[in-house]
Amino acid sequence: MGRIEALLAAMTLAEKIGQLNMPASHQAVTGPGARRELEEGVRSGQVGNVLNLWGAGEVQALQRLAVEHSRLRIPLLVGLDVVHGHRTIFPVPLAEAGLFDPDIWQQTARAAAAEAAADGVSLTFAPMVDVARDPRWGRMVESPGEDPWVASAFAAAKTRGFQGTDLRATSSIAATVKHLSGYGAVTAGREYASVELSERTLHEVHLPPFAAAVAAGVAAVMPAFIDVAGVPMTANAALLQGWLRGRHAFEGVVISDYNAIAELRIHGVAADTAAAAALALSAGVDIDMASEAYVEGLPAALERGLVSAAQLDASVSRVLRLKERLGLFDDPYRGAGTGGPDFPIRELARQTARRAIVLLTHRGGVLPLSTELQHIAMIGPLAAAAKEMLGPWAAAGRPEETVSILEGLKAALPNCRIETSDPDARGIPAALESCRAAQLVILCLGEEAAMSGEAASRADLGLPGKQRELAEAVLDLGKPVIALLTSGRPLIVPWLFERAAAVLATWFLGSEAGHAIADVLTGKVSPTGKLTVTWPRHLGQVPIFYGQRPGGRPPRSGERLSSSYLDIPVTPQFHFAHGLSYSSFVLSDLRCTPTAVKMAETIEVSVSVRNASGRAGEATVFLFVRDPLASISRALLELKGVSRSALEPGESKRIQWQLPIAAFAFIGVDLDRALEPGRFELYAGESADPAGLLRCDIEVMG
Ligand code: BGC
Asked: Which of 22, 25, 30, 82 to mutate to test the pocket of ligand 1 (most atoms within 8 A of CB)?
C-alpha cells in the first residue's frame, strides 16, 4: 500500500475533513469572518492547511505541531497570495503583462517563489488570469488585461515560474490559477456582483487562460466567488468536474475562494451548511478556504447521503498527493529559513518595472529629461509615497525597502534641485509656489494602492480628491508638465492627456518603482510598456475592448444609424497595445506564405520593421487575424502573435511568425471548436489601432 492509501485507511472522518480545511492565520486579513485558533486544530488533525502565514519561524513552529504532535503527522500546506512578488515586489500583473515577455513573466514568478519558499510558503494563490474589460472593477490590477491570448501566455509562464521544473525543489511553490471563471465580467464592474455571460464568451474569452495553466501543469485551481447566470462557481459541477477534470484532465487540487463555500447559503442555493458543503464537494472543490463549512457541514452531508465517502476520499487523496508532490512528507520545512533567490532580485525588479511603464502621450520632445535641467518641481500625493508603490497585493513587501518616485529621481539626478511640496499637507498654493521657480514640473497623480484590488470597484475613474484641481492649477502656470499616473486601472483624464507635455502610466511598480521611473524619465532606457487593456476616454464606453464584433451597423463617422454615441466619440483614448517610445518605427511589406493553405498547415507571416529615429529602441509588433465570414460573427481583430526587436538607429529587421491554421479555430454554433475554410485577413501593427495596421490575406481551403 502506498503512503496515501495507508494514510487514508488510518484516518478518522475528522482527520479526513481536516485535510480539506484551510483556515486563515492572523498575519494577514484577506477575507471576512472570525479567525480560528490554529494550534489546537493542527494538533488535533482538524487543520491540514493554512493561509496567510509566512516567516520561516512562524511556519516552522506550526509545521512542527503538525509533523511532531498530530496523530498522523501529516505536514501542512501553507498558502499565501504571492501575486506579484513576495518580499521583493514586482509590478502589478496589469503592468507586468504589458512587457509582452513570457521569459520575464516566468523569471519574476520564479524569483517570487524562491523568496516565498524561504519564508515557509508552499503554495501561492496565483496566477490570477481573469480577463478584465471593465476598469471600474478594482481587480483589473491583478489581471493580465483584456485579451485571452495574452492571459493564456501569462498563465502558462507564471505557472512554469512558480513551480519550476520540479515541484519538490525547495525554491518551487505550487501555483493556483484563479478565479475560474468570468469574475472579470461582474455586472457594472461592481465587486462580487452576479455575472451574465454567454457560454460562447465564457469558452472563447474567459476559459482559455485556465486551460493554458492546466496544460502547463498548474497544481491547483480556485473557482471564483461569483455566480454566472445563477450558478455559483463554487458549486459549478459542469465546469469543475466536466470541463476542468474531464475535458482538460486536471488532476490537481481545487481550492475554494475565501469563505466561498459558506457563502453558497447567501447565494441562495444551499439551505444550510451541510448542503453548502455537499454542493461544493460534489462540484469538485477539495479544500475549503476559511469558511469551516466542510468541518461543520460534511459529517451531516455524509449522514444525509448528500455526498459519499468515496467523494470525500478522492478529495483527501488529491490534497495528500499535492503534499507529496511538494516533498512535504520528506522535508516538511522545505526552503523555510534558507537564503531565498540566489541572483540579484532587486535588479530584476528594477528592469521589469522600467519596462512596464507606458508612455501614453508625448509632445514637444520633453522626454527624456534634458541633462541641462537644474531645477525640477515634483508635486502630488504620490511623489514620496513609497508604500503606495507596492500596490494592493504586497505580500511581505516592506514600505521601508521601497523606492519612492522622489527618491528614485533624486538618486538619478544628484546635481539637479528637486523641490517637492505635499499638497495634502500644505495646500495647493504652497505646491504652486514650489513650481514657480522650477524649469519643469513632474506631477505624481493617481490612486493609492487601496483604491485598486479586491473590493475596490470605482464608479468614477477620474483622479481622486483634489488632484484635478491641483493639476489644472499647475498646468495653468504654463511650464512643461510631465504627469505620472500611479494606478491599477486606466484613469479617465482626457483633459490631462490634452494639456500635459507627457503622460506616463506608472501603475504600481513595486519595490524599485522610483528607480525604474527615473530610468525612463532620464532616458537610461526608452519606454517599452504596452497597454493590455483598451483605455477609455469616457466612463460611458466601458466595458471596452478591441476584440469586438462588427455588428450589422458598425461605427461609421457621421452616420447616425451606426453603432456609436451621440455625445462622445466611439474610439478609445488609447488602443489596446498602445505605448510610445523615444524611438519611432516603420512597418512595411507584410507577407503571408503560402497564400492558399489547407487546414492542417502552417503559414509564415513576416513583416519588416525599421527604426526610423536617431535612438536605439525596442519595437513591439502585434499580429492579429480577422475571419470576415464564418458561421458565427467573429471579432474584428484577434491577437495571435507578438514580437519584440531591439533596433539601433536606422536598423531594419524582418520579423517572422509561424502560424498554424488551427489557431484560427473558434467556438462554433454547437459551442465546440470549429475551423471553417475561407478567406482570412492578417494584420500587423504596433497596436490595435486600425489606422496603423498592415494587411495581407490568405485562403484556407476545406
Ligand atoms: C481573494 C483571492 C485570494 C484569497 C486569499 C480572496 O478574498 O478573492 O484571490 O486568493 O482571498 O487571500
From this structure: 30
pLDDT in tens, 106-134: 999 999 999 999 999 999 999 999 999 99
> Residue 557: pLDDT above 90?
no
Q: Is 125 in the pocket of ligand 1 (CB under 6 A)?
A: yes
Question: What atom of ligand 1 comes closest to residue 79's alpha carbon?
Answer: 5
The H helix count followed by the E strand count for the chain is: 20, 26
The span from the CA of 355 to the CA of 70, in Å, is: 49
Q: What pLDDT does residue 1 have?
A: 84
Query: Residue 447 corresponds to which cell in the numbers above?
Result: 490612486
For ligand 1, say whether the CB of 258 is within 6 Å of any of its atoms.
yes
Task: Report helix, strand and coil shares of the chain as percent, to nearest 5.
Answer: 35, 20, 45
Q: How far apart are CA 398 and CA 118, in angstroms?
A: 16
Residue appearing with cell numbers 506608472: 506
**Which pairing describes strands 638-647 and 617-626: parallel, antiparallel, or unpaired?**
antiparallel
* CA 256 to ligand 1 center in whole angstroms: 9
Indicate the range of 243-252, 333-342, 404-413, 535-544 predicted with least confidence: 333-342
Whole-angstrom distance, CA of residue 127 vs CA of residue 485: 25
Ligand 1 atom nearest to 126, measured from its CA: 10
Q: Considering only CA atoms, which of 529, 681, 504, 690 is closest in space to residue 620? A: 529
Q: Give CA–CA dist 98/73, Å, rounded.
A: 45
State in Å: Cα 25 to ligand 1 middle: 13
What's the pLDDT band for 34 if we cut at 50, 70, 90?
low
For 29, how many CA atoms within 13 A lie in the half-sphere containing its CB? 5
CB-side neighbour CA atoms (13 Å) of 271: 3
30 Cβ below 6 A of ligand 1: yes
Task: Determine whether the shortest distance from the Cβ of 579 to ligand 1 is under 6 A.
Answer: no
Tell me the average pLDDT across 287-303: 98
- Residue 52 CA: nearest ligand 1 atom is 12
For residue 556, how many C-alpha atoms fall within 13 Å in the half-sphere facing its CB? 8
pLDDT at 425 over 90: no
- The predicted pLDDT at position 360 comes to 98
Q: Would you say 70 and 46 are in contact if contact means Cβ atoms under 8 Å apart?
A: no
Q: What is the pLDDT of residues 52-76, one digit of tens each?
A: 999 999 999 999 999 999 999 999 9
Cβ neighbours around 53 below 10 Å, total = 23
**What is the CA(30)–ligand 1 centre distance, in A?**
6
Q: Which residues are catalytic?
A: 257
pTM over 0.90: yes
